[in-house]
Amino acid sequence: MTLLDMPPTATPPVVSLGATRVLAGASHHHAVSYAEHRALAGPLVYRTHAWLCDAARQVRLLGRGGAAFPVATKLAALVPGPATGVLVNGSESDPASHKDRVLMRSAPHRVIDGAMVVGAALGTARITIAVHDPLAARALADACRERGDAAAVRIAVTAAGFVGGEIRAVLNAVEGRPAVPDGRPVLPTERGLDGTPTFASNAETFAQLGLLAVLGTSGYADVGTASEPGTSLGTLLGDVPRPGVAEIAHGTSLDLLTGATGDRPVLLGGYHGTWSRERGLRLDRAALREHGLDWGAGVLAVLPRATCPLGEVARVARWLAAESAGQCGPCVFGLAAIADDLTRLHAGRPVDVSALHRRLGLIAGRGACGHPAGAVRFVASAVTAFSDEVRAHAGGGCGRPVLGSLPLPGRAA
Fold this sequence. Notes:
By secondary structure, the chain is α/β, with parallel strands linked by helices. The chain has helices at residues 34-41, 49-58, 71-76, 99-106, 108-121, 134-146, 167-174, 203-220, 254-258, 285-290, 309-322, 329-346, 353-363, 371-385, 387-394; strands at residues 14-15, 85-90, 127-131, 154-157, 198-202, 231-238, 244-249, 266-268, 274-276, 299-302.
């Protein structure tokens, strides 16, 4: 069974790799109840703002939403008080990533625990969980009703969309404005919910903070590496030994997760990520950055041999172009032109590949938000990693069908 064959409402399987803490007790069959959760997690432990900042710094906790921003820095930027906001960004917007949806659907109390811990540390009851997935929203709402301490938690259902998952877009959506990023990059710690300073991060980050509060720094660092203690959630996708969502100890070999891929490129990080032929890599964000790579949205994907890689990339490029917020030229015109080039190239029609490379270079680093740069990273690395396929299609094609192996909305959960 692969994630690619699942109906939109199905929950991907939880893959056990031995380091299960955030996903303890989780299953794709049902959500962990509050009684089950407390039996597994123990009593919820509240911490002070100073303790949480120091603990997050000691375990080098990085945000799990893709940017990997140091959590301690974000927490320390906020002054505790009742006007401060807490925003859980549950708007997982990359179609290849399922980790946050599995977490919210199957272990919602982990997310709520983290939100409650952060709220208490900041001295505020203003906690909002923004989510676009209906099953996740229902699981979180049911979980809040199960427990006596989460009555004030607000579940805000927002619009889906790739750019709509960016934190400034989520803030706009929660407050009833269009779900697109503002042109000015104002941090939520300066201006967030209702214009007040807000601690905002994705669902997995909050689950990790709740775990840290309970375990303490030494217990949290029992797994992982000295440079990056703990675990991260990831989506293992396509032609891999065990497709699904896994909790992975830092330091784990990525080759172990992807299996014997031969010389096939691996997509690391999702649809704003990078295709790479590197082998011998481990889940360690600092080490990955030394290779020009990033864990990003926590996706590891390997295409089946039976599908046409260039056709798969062209499909995703077309979708990425359509996801533009329409706020800047590099996104509106540049991504569409790139998708057109890839579509023509896949069809065996004449394309100036050197001009395509130049166009990719012109868009990189530009735009009103991170979408153009992320889309270009995905496409540019694919053109390089699948250079043999590019040459084959320039000569007429590879002869393989496009199976739709890279999930797009409507094809996967």
